[in-house]
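Our platform keeps sequence and structure together, in a single record for each protein. Such a record has a labelled line for the sequence and another for the backbone structure tokens. The tokens are whole numbers drawn from a learned vocabulary of local backbone shapes. The remainder of this section carries one protein's record, kept here as part of the documentation:
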Amino acid sequence: MVWYVHEGDLEIKNREAFERKMTRYLTSAESDIKYEHHLYVCTRESDELQRHIMFRDILRKHPLLVSEYSNLKIQLSSEFRNNRKAYTEGKTEFVTRIMKEYKDVL
């Protein structure tokens, strides 16, 4: 069974967050919940949407950053397997730095 859980705006205006969960049955008596991914719904005028588009465009123009970001996500997911907040904070530091360094290059 798969479902999305609404998480609210997570303190970001004009954005709603959803988490997709899938129940997997290990045996007839046990089950666990696997978090598959997150879905964000933004209004067109959302600053967060514009920030995501800008980051996407920077990555498209700089393939080496894609590799760096990918390696960081792999490392963070391994290091913070059960700590989503720490994983997100690690990604946020990278994204913030890249946005500052490359915002005028677009």
Observations:
- Confidence is low (pLDDT under 50) at residues 25-31.
- Residues 13 and 46 are 7 Å apart (CA to CA).
